[in-house]
Amino acid sequence: MAVKIRLARHGAKKRPFYRVVVADGRMPRDGRYIELVGRYNPLTTPKTIEIDLEKVDAWVAKGAQPTNAVAHLIDIARGAAPEPSKKDKKSKKQIAKDAAAAEEAAAAAAESAE
Fold first, then answer.
1. d(Cα 74, Cα 98) in Å, to the nearest integer?
2. What pLDDT is stored for residue 89 in this prediction?
3. Cross-strand bridge partners of residue 21
4. Strand arrangement, sheet containing 65-66
5. How many Cβ atoms sit within 10 Å of the Cβ of residue 3?
6. Which residue(s) pair with 10 in the sheet?
7. Residue 85: pLDDT band with limits 50, 70, 90
8. Whole-angstrom Cα distance, residue 58 to residue 56?
9. Surface-to-core class of residue 18, CB atoms within 10 Å of its CB (0-12 exposed, 13-18 middle, 19+ buried)
10. Contact of 40 with 7, CB cutoff 8 Å
11. In the beta sheet, which residues pair with residue 58?
């Protein structure tokens, strides 16, 4: 029996939250699981990661394999990996406005220097 530590998706349409569960690898993603070991909510600011590391360590010692996503969440919960932050993208209009403002500031600085 291949035991995995993985995410089970819950919540409404386009409003997901995840449970970190220990489950048989043959079970469906949101199906029956052996034990609930944590929760992950990507919609809150900052993202909420609640994982019982003692239970995770016990299951890993028994041979359970965490998925890539869960392994990353465990690293964040332990403090080993920094929590990813979303980069703010500027629109083309905002970039043009910022460039124009920079040019005006440079022109004003040149006039005041003379």
1. 40
2. 84
3. 6, 36
4. 48-51, 35-41, 15-24, 3-12, 65-66
5. 17
6. 17
7. low
8. 5
9. buried
10. yes
11. none
